[in-house]
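ok so I'm stuck.
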Amino acid sequence: MSVVIEPAVRDAMYAALPHLRAFAISLTGSLDRADDLVQETLLRALSNLDRFERGTNLQAWMFTILRNLFHSDYRKRRREIEDPEGAFAEKLAVMPEQGAKLDFDDMRIALTKLSPEQREAILLVGAEGLTYEEAAVVCGVVVGTIKSRVNRARNRLSELLQLDGADEIGPDRLVRAVLETRHPG
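replied:
not stuck anymore, here's the structure
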């Protein structure tokens, strides 16, 4: 059976793929499981495309599908080894050789220490660029709840990463110096 999709909808679905994959990776912690989750999300979205309300945010709708699939799968996988503190996963990590990789690992570990609700909110708003309103729809809560979760997540991440100010976020002094010499002003 062939499904005919409007070009604009098809293009929006393609554009959402990298964002869906990034969100799936952050939820699952596994590239393979994330890819499976994105594939299942696409299949579910295509089979239920008639339920999508035209004029609303297709990407947010697909994020909702992905999130619901993840939580359904998570409930099924509860019988597996749980590692809420990341102790087992931390032992499996390979020590990186570059500072950016270390910073990324620090952030990844800090994210695991947030509550699932705060982690979802900060990733949807901060990493995926959804508005508070769109993230609220994806998570099925009111906008104020998302704002609160994002604020608490930011504060907790600053505490966990021992950040004192905005200068500590982003490229370090050496990288900034190189960038400034290449692109002055």
